Amino acid sequence: MTVADTVSTTATAEPAEESALHPPRGVLHDVWVIARRGLLHMKRQPEQLTDATIQPIMFVVLFGYVFGGAIHVQGGGNYREFLMGGIIAQTLVFTAFGVALSIANDRKNQAVDRFRSLPIARGAVLGGHAVANLIKALLPIGLMSIAGYAIGWRIRGGLVDTVTAYLLMIAFAFAMIWIGVLLGSIVATPEGVQGIAFVALFPLTFIASTFVPIASMPSALRDVASWNPITTLSDALRQLFHNPNTPIKPGDPWSIAHPVAYTWLWIIAIIVLAAPAAVRSYARSIER
Amino acid sequence: MMSTRDIESPSGPSAGDAPLAIEGRGLVKRFGDKVALAGVDIAVAKGTVTAVLGPNGAGKTTAVRILTTLSNATEGTATVAGFDVARDGNEVRRRIGLAAQDATVDPLLTGHENLTMIGELHQLSRREAKARATELLEQFELSDASAKVAGAYSGGMRRRLDLAATLVARPEVLFLDEPTTGLDPRARNELWAVLETLVDGGVTILLTTQYLEEADRLADDILVIDHGTVIARGDARSLKRQVGGDNIGVTIPDVSRLDEVAYLLRRLTGHDPIVERPARTATAPTSEGVAGLAAVANALSEGKFEVEDLSLRQPSLDEVFLTLTGSAIDHDEAPETTAKAGKGTTR
Questions:
Q1: For residue A120, which residues of chain B lie inside 8 Å, CB to CB?
Q2: How far does the CA of residue A111 sit from the closest CA of chain B (Å)?
Q3: B123 touching A, CB under 8 A?
Q4: B5-241 has which fold?
Q5: DSSP per residue over B286-312, as a string?
Q6: Whose CA is closest to B175, among B275, B71, B271?
Q7: Among A41, A276, B27, B63, which is least packed by CB within 10 angstroms?
Q8: What is the pLDDT of residues A199-223, one digit of tens each?
Q9: pTM of the model
Q10: What is the predicted ipTM?
Q11: Chain A contact set for B104 (CB, 8 A)
Q12: For chain B, what are the domain ranges?
């Protein structure tokens, strides 16, 4: 039987009578359907998960064991324990990169047009990307907690501090999603996204207390690093987990003295300012 | 539109009494200074097929994007399945299926996952969507590949999956943007058969194409557009009639005598023949039908020409297009052959 025969015999074509129009199931339903697609993408392209899995482990080994011996944490303590806060922070920053890449890919594959021709709730596509990438961000958070344990990192704080630390990580990842949407909407191609991530995002995670105490940096770089939210996120995690960290001295910038509060301010600022800009920019990028 | 050469087609579906599935009035789309559509009227009766025919960049895709709510018209209004595309976008989207120019199935999802997702986004329950996906995969002979990612499909399979995706919610109106571009002849024929079945079932189809053969085969009504304006409309027969009478074609094995044949045709028909050297063919219009053909046959026999093919036929839609736009349809697929044929052609 040919395709046409089968189509006719089973009467696919019957339109109006059979097409009981389905009432909308709401934005959360649509968001979850699109989020599931994002999760399937990650499952089918495990290489896209390297920034959340292999890369942080690689950095743990590289810095913890190769460079670590030469790095001294003021105030004492195990460098590998100091390192964990930084590596988790770096990994969370890369959440933005993953989001930007999936948005650029959607445009390249014309998935955007497909979605826009379907009767779905407004914002469901972006919502789906956000949920999928938030789930993706949980992966390195869990993985690093385990890998860290194996190399001697410990949660030494109380319950409240620990819960705050994990909430801070998730909130930071959520904020990074909107940076990613902005980036993916402005930069047209997946290749472009990769380029920007390499020249902007990657160095930014190094001009910070991610891997080394910023005290050793030349003063200009140290000023950047002091106010870099990646520094304060790393420091905030060290503080909340009660891990070794450079002691706060009088005269340190406010950001260094209050890393948890300063990081929260950044998260709120990004969500309040960057997220609406990202949504607008995304809407413009899909209009042709 | 002033520039439109409307062709009377009394039997055509645009006769006005039938209810319209698609209606667009004065559609204009400007991108900055660039005018993609310069005022297009379109009317498609329920259960009929309209082909929008035109070269690359004529505005075909822009028109489809407006009618499927993907793009807003700068001016003009349109209704699809009874709903205004600008005001009631979601009502339109519930009732249409769109197969964009490049198959937009998700390459990382399996065939089954692709269709299930689209079903769910058409607001079917997950269970209903899965059942519908299985059913469609079977109908499009993709059951064996249902668990394979669409990225691993062949071009023809991906097209079929794409078409199946547009049918998930049993749409009233189907938009197909160049549905057979890049398909081999067999796959193309199969797809045409599927589309015909759908029309029999009452679906309305608007398709764009660069292939006149496709418009000829499928469409009740053809809209020829160029530079964003409708330059002609009607069914295939009336379009051909507009260009004039029949054509006499002569093909000979010996290309060196082709000029003699051309001279003979010019003398007998009074028209400049089209000479295609690679095809060893000369073609000229005639208004005398069989008598004209007989005259040419006699002359060929007297001149002791060896003849491979001698024919009297209606002009092809390609020739129609040539006459209407003054330029040949530009097929992407074979730029080299077109170029070669172009060199060998004298008018």
A1: 121
A2: 6
A3: yes
A4: Rossmann fold (3.40.50)
A5: ESSHHHHHHHHHHHHHHTT---SEEEE
A6: B71
A7: A276
A8: 888 888 999 998 888 888 898 999 9
A9: 0.78
A10: 0.83
A11: 109-111, 113-114
A12: 5-241, 245-346
